[in-house]
């Protein structure tokens, strides 16, 4: 298993190197630079601007800036934010729990609904239920997130007044020190009644919006994988022995259909983690996506570069974790058969 994981890790190294180069280059193709953004501040003299440009290394040739950037990354230095003057890694991991909490809630929401829906649709192939579920899954997968989020806000928040519009918690009604950064846990650890339910209410809409696309993808993959497995000889044999449909589908078929489903869940989890930008922007969710959007507006090069590379590192770790799970589910994968 260790040899298998090391081989998979080696294959990700070229991707990481290419991402360093593309990240550095694409950020500098965006019009403007951080110095020009700061030109409108009071008390910023031309001499001070030249000093800032020198401090950031922007007066150096691009190739020299890139080599300095790579050298800093190799030493674990992701830079310091121009705006907040805080190390990028510190700022990233301060905001990261909010994104992780939202991402995990979204993927759990998607799995709980999608896997049973896909299994039942495959078991009732060609029925009205099958067609309805796959139609809903296709619509969900094709749904524009910004439109879906705004529609839910209009319905659930503005019309029915059931959920809050934005944020993670009502900061006026509830205040307590952060222990883990995950408000679902911190609210339970606090002694404030109603804090946990308030956090849940704030999570409902972002979770539904962010989980809609993976829900559709996982449901369709589950159905497709189950249909293939249900045609196998060992499933027919289990049916011929008179085993119940629940045992045939749940024990014999589902376990062998899980590998493509786990693959899809892994892909969707990494996609959600790296791409929660729209959802966090719509709901003013104080996470990594919202932070990166503001960093783009402020041309905060270190925050953008460091944030993207940290996300990439986490995505690579998640992919390796998925490979480990594949090896546990199917030993033939780790033995290269």
Q: How would you portray this structure in words?
A:
The protein is mostly helical and 337 residues long. It has two domains: 73 residues, no CATH class; 244 residues, MetI-like fold (Orthogonal Bundle), CATH 1.10.3720.10. Helix 1 packs antiparallel against helix 14, helix 6 crosses helix 9 and helix 7 packs across helix 9. The radius of gyration is 24 Å and the shape is globular. The mean pLDDT is 81.
Short description:
The protein is mainly alpha-helical and 337 residues long. The protein is built from 15 helices and no strands. Helix content is 75%, strand content 0%.
Protein topology:
Layout: H1 2-29, H2 34-37, H3 46-56, H4 62-74, H5 88-123, H6 128-142, H7 145-159, H8 183-189, H9 195-230, H10 233-240, H11 245-274, H12 277-282, H13 288-297, H14 301-329, H15 331-334
Count of discrete alpha- or pi-helical segments spanning 4 or more residues? 15
CATH class of the largest domain: Mainly Alpha
Roughly what fraction of the amino acids lie in strands?
under 5%
Quote the CATH topology of the largest domain. Answer: MetI-like fold
* Stretches with pLDDT under 50, minimum 5 residues: none
Question: Biggest β-sheet: count, sense, barrel?
Answer: none
How many β-strand stretches? 0
């Amino acid at each position: 298993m260790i040899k298998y994981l090391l081989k998979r890790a080696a294959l990700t190294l070229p991707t990481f190197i290419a991402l360093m180069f593309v990240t550095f280059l694409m950020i500098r193709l965006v019009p403007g630079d951080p110095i020009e953004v700061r030109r409108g501040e009071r008390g910023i003299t031309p001499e001070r601007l030249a000093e800032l440009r020198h401090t950031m290394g922007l007066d150096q040739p691009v190739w020299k800036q890139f080599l300095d950037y790579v050298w800093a990354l190799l030493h674990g230095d992701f830079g310091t934010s121009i705006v907040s003057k805080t190390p990028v890694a510190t700022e990233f991991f301060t905001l990261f729990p909010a994104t992780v909490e939202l991402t995990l809630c979204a993927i759990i929401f998607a799995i709980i609904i999608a896997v049973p829906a896909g299994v039942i649709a495959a078991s009732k192939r060609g029925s009205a239920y099958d067609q309805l579920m796959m139609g809903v899954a296709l619509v969900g997968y094709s749904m524009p997130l910004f439109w879906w989020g705004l529609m839910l806000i209009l319905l659930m928040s503005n019309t029915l007044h059931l959920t809050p519009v934005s944020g993670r918690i009502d900061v006026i009604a509830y205040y307590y020190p952060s222990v883990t950064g995950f408000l679902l846990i911190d609210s339970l650890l606090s002694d404030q009644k109603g804090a946990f339910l308030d956090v849940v209410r704030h999570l409902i809409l972002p979770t539904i919006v962010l989980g809609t696309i993976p829900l559709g993808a996982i449901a369709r993959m589950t159905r497709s994988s189950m249909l293939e497995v249900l045609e196998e000889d060992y499933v027919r044999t289990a049916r011929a022995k008179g085993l119940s449909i629940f045992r045939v589908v749940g024990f014999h078929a589902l376990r062998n259909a899980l590998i493509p489903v786990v693959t899809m869940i892994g892909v969707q989890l990494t996609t959600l983690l790296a791409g929660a930008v729209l959802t966090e922007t719509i709901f003013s969710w104080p996470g990594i996506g919202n932070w990166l959007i503001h960093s783009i507006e402020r041309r905060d090069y270190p925050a953008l570069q460091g944030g993207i590379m940290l996300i990439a590192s986490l995505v690579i770790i998640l992919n390796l974790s998925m490979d480990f799970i594949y090896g546990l589910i199917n030993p033939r994968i780790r033995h290269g058969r």
